[in-house]
Amino acid sequence: MTPPQVSIVIPTFNRSGMLRRCIDSALAQTFPCEVVVCDHGSTDDTPAVARSYGDRIRYVRREQDSGVHFAWLDGVISARGEFVHINFDDDLILPTFIEKCMALMGPEVGLCFSVAEVRDDATGRALSHIFTGMGATGVYARRRFMSLQIKSLVSPGATLIRRKDIIHHLYVGRVPFARSEYHGVGPDWLMTAMTSLDYPKFGFVAEPLAVFSAHAGSITVDAHADVQRRRKLYRAYQEARLFYTISRLVRLFRLDLLARLWLFASQVYGRVAYGCYSFFCRKKPNLHD
Fold first, then answer.
1. Distance CA 87, CA 102 (A)
2. Integer CA distances (angstroms), 31 to 28, 34, 84, 152, 224, in order
3. Who wins on pLDDT, 68 or 137?
4. Which domains are present in the chain?
5. d(CA 163, CA 282)
6. What is the pLDDT of residues 249-283, one digit of tens each?
7. Closest by Cα among 240, 90, 110 to 170
8. Alpha helices (runs of H) in the chain, residue ranges in sequence order
């Protein structure tokens, strides 16, 4: 069997009421896709909802919830496609999302994203459009993507990216050099930012093909309703931006060469020190034995 070119990974936890519409939107894509639902420890009827789709989806179930990014990574590792879209269980994508993003992907394009619509979950009313201002649909230089990322966040929920790049750049623990955390916030930003370092271009679809639900259970909505939580959210993203900046400087000024020189010197010092210790401090033989 030929492996799928694109996998849609849906990490989920106790949102069976929203999960069905998310899966339905993935199955309605005009581009053939594999759909992987990764459930980490749901205690509601999520297993029954997922299994009702039969072999139209692949269902990965873990009894223990290890955290949101472990669920992402588990689903991505289980996926077989070269390209992956991570679709949060409370959101959905319009039928042409994958088709129009794939039309822009190429060897020099690290990722593609679309405009997203934020929709009130209770009324179905559109509240805003985000990830706008790029211009027309097309392929652009990396710096334009990062100019948007530095100011805010291009969510993975509106993004198509290579499976290997997610595996390489998704942190499932604390972001390096981070001093604060907030519900796993930060690695989502860092995953796409670090991927952009490996490719000169990105793709952009100037249509709202991803739909984000605004509801009380949303981490982002919950954070913006409280000043202290909003500050924690901001600090968590700043920590991710700090690590990206350090990584960018390392590449720009080839600081890896200095690190390699330091490593070489440390190894030479270690060998000399061990040799001196072995020669002068080795155990003398006991003549009475």
1. 16
2. 9, 10, 13, 30, 36
3. 137
4. 1-90 (3.90.550.10), 93-282 (no CATH)
5. 53
6. 999 898 889 889 999 999 988 888 888 888 777 65
7. 240
8. 16-27, 46-51, 68-78, 97-102, 142-151, 163-169, 187-196, 219-224, 227-252, 255-281
Report which of 247, 209, 244, 179 is spatially closest to residue 91, judged by C-alpha positions. 209
The answer for residues whose C-beta is within 8 angstroms of residue 165's C-beta and 6 or more apart is 110, 111, 191, 195, 198
Report phi then psi at 228, rounded to 5. -65, -40
Dist. CA 20–CA 28, nearest whole Å: 12
Amino acid (1-letter code) at residue 232: K
pLDDT, tens digit (0-9, with 9 covering 90-100), for 81-119 = 999 999 999 999 999 999 999 999 999 999 999 999 999
Q: From CA 266, how far away is CA 263, in angstroms rounded?
A: 5
pTM of the model: 0.88
The CA distance from 176 to 173, in Å, is 9
Cα–Cα distance, 1 to 283 (Å, whole number): 65
**Identity (one letter) of the amino acid at 31?**
F
**Among 44, 144, 37, 146, CA closest to 87:** 37
**For residue 206, which of 143, 125, 112, 120 has the smallest C-alpha distance?**
112
| 91 Cβ contact partners less than 8 Å away, ≥ 6 residues apart | 22, 157, 210, 211, 212, 213
For residue 214, the one-letter residue type is A
For the chain, how many residues are written?
A: 289
d(CA 37, CA 78): 10
* Cα Rg of the chain, angstroms: 23
